[in-house]
Structures are given as C-alpha cells and as structure tokens.
Amino acid sequence: MVTAIHRPTWLSVDLDAATHNLQAIRRWTKAKKVYAVLKANGYGLGAVQLAQAFETTAAADAFVVSNLDEALELRQAGIVRPIWVLGAWGYEDLDLFIKNKIVITVPSLDWLQHLPILSGQLMLSLAIDTGMTRIGFDQADQIAAAKQLIDQNPQLSLFSVYTHFATADESGEQSQHYFDMQLQRWHDLVDRQGFDPDLFSMANSATCIWHAGDPRISFAAIRPGQLISGVNVSNGDLPMPRDLQLEKVLGLYTELADVRFVKKGQALSYGATQTMPQDGYVGTMPFGYNDGWLRRMQGSSVLINQKKMPILGRITMDQTMVLLDQKYPLGTRVTLIGKDGPEEITLESVAAYSHTIVDEIQTTLAPRIKRIYTGDLAEVIGANNG
C-alpha cells in the first residue's frame, strides 16, 4: 500500500515520549533487561523508527517481533541488538535466522528433535505454555529433554526461557486465580530444570504494570509492547499506577477537505442511515475505514476548534463527514486522537466506543497514513528523511 504523503491525514509519533516510557517501565519493574516488543510495525507506530530511537538511547536491550520479515526489516535498517521472533517457525528459513543472528522460538520438543543440519549457530527462545495454549512446552520431562539437546549441541545457543500470561490485564477473582495458576505452573515446570535465571522472560506489558511487586515473577527480562504508547493496556479495567508517569506517544489528525451547507432532513452517506438534524454545515474529512476508522465509529466525535463534534452517517472507505457548529475554512485541523486545547480524545476512549482493545485500534491504522516523527530523537536518527 502506498503511503499517502500528499493527503492531509497523518499520525504523529513522539519518539522522545516512547523512549521515556520504555525507560520509566524499566525503573518501575527494576528489570535487568528490556526487550521492546515491536511486532505489527511497532503497534502501528513504526518499528524501524522506534528501534532506532531505543538503540540510540540504549533504552532497549533487544527487540521482539512476530515474524522473520519483521526481524529482517530491522536488520536491514541497521539495527544491531538482538532480535527475537515470537511466532512458531518452520525449518525452511533457518539459514536466514543464523545469517542475521535472529532468535527463533522453539514451540515444541518435536520441533527441536527434528532440526536439520545447521549452517552456523542458531539462537533459541524456549516457549513455556503455562495456560495460553498457543505454543510451547507444557510437560516438565519434555523441557528437560529440550534443555539437554540444547546443552549438548554447540550450534544451539539459548537466548531466553519465557511464558505469557492470559489474564494479567484483567480484574476480578477469576482472572487473578488464572494468573496465579499460570505462575504456579511456571514454577512447577521450570524451577528444577537448571536454567540460568537471567534467561527468564515472564512479564508482558500488563504484568509489568500490575504485577511488578510480585516476588514470584522474574523481571530478568521484560517484554513491554503496547505499553510503550503510554496507554492503559487493560482498557480501563485496572487503574494505572499514579507514580508510573507515562507519556502519550501518538496523535491522529486530518483536515477538512470540504465544507457545505446542508438543509435539515437531508440524508447523509451510504444507506441514508442518518439525516441532517438541522440546517447547518457538514465537513468532509479525507479519512475512512480503509485508514482504520471502522464503520462502527459512526456517531463518535472528533475535535475541531477545541470542541467535540459528532461524525454523521456511515463512515465510508476514504471519507467521513462531521457535523460542524459553524462554517470553517478548508484545511481546518481535525483531531481524531489527541488533544486540542482542554479537550482530548484518547486511544482508550476510541477503543471503548468501538467495543475493542487499544491494540486493535492502534494496529488497524493503515500504512497509507503518513507517520510524522517528533521529538529530539526524530532529528538524531533522521526519522522523517525518506
């Protein structure tokens, strides 16, 4: 998809704020190492630009992505710190993992037992399934067998032993019970295996925030992802700690491309689902569901001139209409996520209106929206030059 550099719709990404957040999370958790999760193009913010900022400032010790192509993109951009692919992977690309010094995840004993002859040293992360039931080892004897295979093969190097919590971002007795069950399962499976505890990686974003004081959890290496954006990753289910001062990283903006006077009762947009409530002005914005502002956002608000104004009619592929309180000149700025004077539309509020999570809203924002990087780090790494 071509980035629409000539269209007045843009995503603003503050690299200084993102770096501040990663450093604040390290302090909050007292983590020895921070592995910044930059999957899905850095949750839509730009994986390369975030990685360059975090590597320049030493805010991250390694980077975590979902697949090999995401990892190669970082390597090709000059990133030198370790890169770890979380997803299960076949054998066909092992040479690329080895050549580019990319960490591959071991999803099962069978995968490890059937490794083909290697062309060099392969770095591994051992997935421990404590209750997500996606990939990983769930039997202690198989973990022991895997460790023996790794220890006996000089071409295999263990980068991490990790797990992932399913309910770390949820409140309630049932969620806490499941979290405790996963923790106990981890210790039952791992404690007596003889692993170097510095290899343990247990804390994702939610675990970093709401379980940082739990002595049962290793903070040898944490994996913050969506939290880097400075948002509440529980979607308001759990309160953010007051003394964890995170900054908002992204803002989403467009401009009025058309303003017209419309008579009361005139139907608006596809399906004629809504009519003009009174004589007045309607603005059209160059932004639609192909940009990630999905049709379920009909009726939500945007900010214009420090005031909230409602979206009218169905959101279309490339354009969206808004009810104006007066006639505004073409090119007037519209805020979809961010502040305009005392008013603010947060990523969390957009997710709540859309009955989803902040991750979905942020990662759905399309590649065709141009990203503009701000802050001193943007100048240092030349984030907007190309």
From TrEMBL:
UniProt entry keywords in alphabetical sequence: Isomerase, Pyridoxal phosphate
Pfam family, one: Ala_racemase_C
Cofactor(s) named in the record: pyridoxal 5'-phosphate
Active site per the UniProt annotation: 39, 270
Organism, scientific name: Oenococcus kitaharae DSM 17330
Protein name in UniProt: Alanine racemase
Keyword Kinase attributed: no
Keyword flag Isomerase: yes
Biological role: Catalyzes the interconversion of L-alanine and D-alanine. May also act on other amino acids.
InterPro entries linked to this entry: Ala_racemase, Ala_racemase/Decarboxylase_C, Ala_racemase_C, Ala_racemase_N, Ala_racemase_pyridoxalP-BS, PLP-binding_barrel
SUPFAM superfamilies in UniProt: Alanine racemase C-terminal domain-like (SSF50621), PLP-binding barrel (SSF51419)
Family: Belongs to the alanine racemase family.
Source species, domain of life: Bacteria
